[in-house]
Amino acid sequence: MLSAGHDGSSGGRGPSSATEPPVDAREELDALCPASGWRSKNVLVALHGRRAPGAVEAGRVIAGALGAPLHGLFVCPEPIEASEVPARVGVDPEALHGMVLDVETSEDLPGALAAAIACRSTAFVVVASEPEELKDERLGIGRLAARALESAVCGVVITGPDRPAQLRRILLPLDGNPSTAASIAPVGELARKLGAELDIVMIGGASPRGEDAEDAPPVSTPAPSEPGSMVAPLYVDQPQHEWPAFAEEFLDRFLSTIGRCPHDVSTRFFLGTGEPAAEILRFAAQLASDLLVLVWHGELDGRHGAVFRDVLCRAPCPVMVLRR
Questions:
Q1: Do 176 and 287 fall within a single domain?
Q2: Closest by alpha carbon to 287, among 217, 200, 203?
Q3: What is the CATH number of the domain that holds 257?
Q4: How many helices (H) and strands (E) are present in the chain, helices listed first?
Q5: pLDDT of 118-176, one tens digit each?
Q6: Distance CA 221, CA 205 (A)
Q7: Are residues 128 and 186 in the same domain?
Q8: Most confident option among 83-87, 162-166, 229-233, 298-302
Q9: Where is this region: Disordered (predicted)?
Q10: 69, HSE (Cβ side, Cα atoms, 13 Å)
């Protein structure tokens, strides 16, 4: 594993007393950022299943960071009062305090959620993947979470058994393609609002030349798949010089320029070798990531789709999916 950190020192990215923008500059960034305007959008939490409390906590953290209203959707076959929802979901009423609660009468929970997403101005949808519900064969997760992924044009956060008390470390795999980087603006802005560290991982990399080169595992870096793509070199002669330069160029091109990530977000860059899904999952566990971000093109065919499905099913933390 090769890594390079950007901690806000001269020439790098990240917060420091010397490079931290003043309040007026932050407000200007908010106005220019494509993710601004979240105060007029909402974070929608699907109140369903025994893992709903974790989804509520994740939704509250995200909504609080963005200054966005927090909405909750509860769907029930028979009409009920909003006051009955906490008991149905299995949470203390205080857990839903400040949430705009919508109660829908329907027997089609996935359909009701899809309809709610379509008719709202939503920044993120948060939904738990329940272990006891029927799995979606294509995506390998609960049907409700799968329907949210397929129907939403906004970001979707899939939570599991763990409740994220905070989001301090965000893992963002990038494949070196401009079309992937063009979709990541929301996560950069969220990281800035949360004060979170953004860990960038690129898979398909290099073995440094030197005494350990013969023992290094074989690697293959795929050919660029679109104009403007960037791939890691198979070998580097002077890792102490070439890797920092590669990391700086990669982050400047894909994170700052195309991804429009704010410059005061602290970032680290990692390069892994091996099977992409296994490497992403390894990094998520090794770095103790609180949130894993995936960019999805909406298809499950091919290599990208297979990696997406594998990581989505096995991630050790909540997963945020952004559509490409």
A1: yes
A2: 200
A3: 3.40.50.620
A4: 10, 13
A5: 887 899 999 998 776 677 888 988 889 998 998 888 999 999 877 666 899 999 999 88
A6: 6
A7: no
A8: 83-87
A9: 1-24, 206-227
A10: 11
Tokens representing 86 are: 């906490």
Cβ neighbours of residue 9 closer than 8 Å, sequence gap 6 or more: 16
With beta carbons less than 8 A apart as the criterion, state whether 103 and 112 touch.
Answer: no
Q: Measuring CA to CA, which residue among 117, 158, 155, 163 is closest to residue 141?
A: 158
Least confident range of 22-31, 35-44, 207-216:
22-31
User: Cα separation of 215 and 184, whole Å?
Assistant: 36
Which two tokens mark 47? 């109140």
- What is the pLDDT at residue 3? 57
Count CB-CB contacts under 10 A for residue 312. Answer: 22
Choose the weakest-confidence range: 26-35, 292-301, 313-322. Answer: 26-35
Measured CA to CA in angstroms, residue 40 lies from 36, 43, 120, 212, 292 at distances of: 9, 10, 11, 55, 26
Q: Which domain holds residue 76?
A: 38-159
Residue 301 lies in a domain: no
Residue 4 has what pLDDT?
56
Residue indicated by tokens 């070798």 = 273
User: Among residues 35, 37, 65, 28, which one has the least CA distance to residue 260?
Assistant: 35
Share of the chain above pLDDT 70, in %: 76
For 48-58, letters b (16+ CB in 10 Å) and e give bbebbbbbbbb
**pTM of the entire predicted model:** 0.81
Residues 292, 146, 152, 126, Cα dihedral to 10°: -50
Query: In the chain, what percentage of residues exceed pLDDT 90?
Result: 50
Mean pLDDT of 269-288: 92
Amino acid at 268: R
Encode 120-133: b = buried (16+ Cβ within 10 Å), e = exposed: bebbbbbbbbbeeb
Domain boundary among 112, 127, 159: 159
Q: How far apart are CA 163 and CA 57, in angstroms?
A: 7
